[in-house]
Amino acid sequence: MNRVRRLLLASTLTVTTLITSSASADIAIVVNAGSGIDQLTRSDAVNIFMGRYRKLPTGNVALPVDSSSLKARFYRALVNKDLAEINSYWARLVFSGEASPPQQIASSDDVHQLVIQNMNALSYVDGANVPDDMHVVLMLGE
Fold first, then answer.
1. Segment 65-106, tens digit of pLDDT
2. Which letter does DSSP use for residue 55 in this model?
3. 38-42 contacts at long range (C-beta below 8 A, 24 or more positions apart)
4. Does 68 map to a domain?
5. Per the structure, how many domains does the chain have?
6. Is the N end or the C end of the chain the one with fewer CB atoms within 10 Å?
7. How does pLDDT run across 41-64, given as a tens digit for each residue?
8. Helices and strands, number each (H, E), in the chain
């Protein structure tokens, strides 16, 4: 009976570890594979996604895109803020006329289509599921 309990405990720990690790997978900031952008610094990503400036390393105007399904995880990993804090931040900037928030896209398929069709678009996807036609410019751990 003692052996059965140990096996059950080991199975439970394994499942818990798998669930925890998949829930906290890295987030990849991605661009079109042909964009000419090799990488972004964390500072670049913060500045672009928080509206401080909208230039890519190539000098082109950046089109940041928020993915509804990953938005909370992304901003927690990027600037350690929850969605309420991010929404409040953008409300102040929009009201003052200082900046516009990233374009909001609901589905990951729509994010994918926009990024592969626009050389200036950048967004984020689950680090474990980066499509071949996107290039990872920065990985954010959670």
1. 999 999 999 999 999 999 999 999 999 999 998 889 999 998
2. B
3. 38/135, 38/137, 39/137, 39/138, 40/122, 40/137, 40/138, 41/138, 42/78, 42/138, 42/140
4. yes
5. 1
6. N
7. 999 999 999 999 889 988 999 999
8. 5, 5
